[in-house]
Amino acid sequence: MVRDTSFLPDALRQQLAEVGQVDVLVGIPSYNNAATIGHVVRAVQGGFARHFPDQRALLLNSDGGSKDGTPEVVRQASIGSFETILAAHPLRAVHRITTPYHGIPGKGSALRTVFGAAVLTGAKACAVVDADLRSITPEWVELLLEPVLRQGFDFIAPLYHRHKYDGTITNSIVYPLTRALYGKRVRQPIGGDFGFSGRLAEHYLSHDVWASDVARYGIDIWMTTTAITGGFKVGQSFLGAKIHDAKDPSVDLSAMLMQVTSVVLTLMGTYAAHWRPVQGSQPVPVFGFEYAVGLEPVPVNLARMLDRFRTGARELRSIWELALHPATAAGVARAASAPDEDMDFPPHLWVRTIYDFAVAYQHGRVNREHLLRSLTPLYLGRTAAFVKQTRDAGAQEVEQILEELCVQFERDKSYLLQRWDETGGGS
Amino acid sequence: MTATFSERLISSLNMFFEAVLRFLPGLLAAVLILIIGLVVGWALRMLVAHILRVARFDRYCDATGVTQALAHADIRSAPSLLVGRALFWLVFLSFAMAGLSALQVGVINQLIAEFFLYLPRIISAVLVLLVGFLLGNFLSRAALLGAVNAGMPSPRLIAIVVKLLIVVLSFAMALEQLRIATSIVLAAFIIAFGAVMFGLALAFGLGGRDVARRVLERQWEREKEDAADGFSHL
Question: Which A positions 307-336 lie with beta carbon below 8 A of chain B?
Answer without folding.
Answer: 307-308, 311-312, 315-316, 318-319, 322
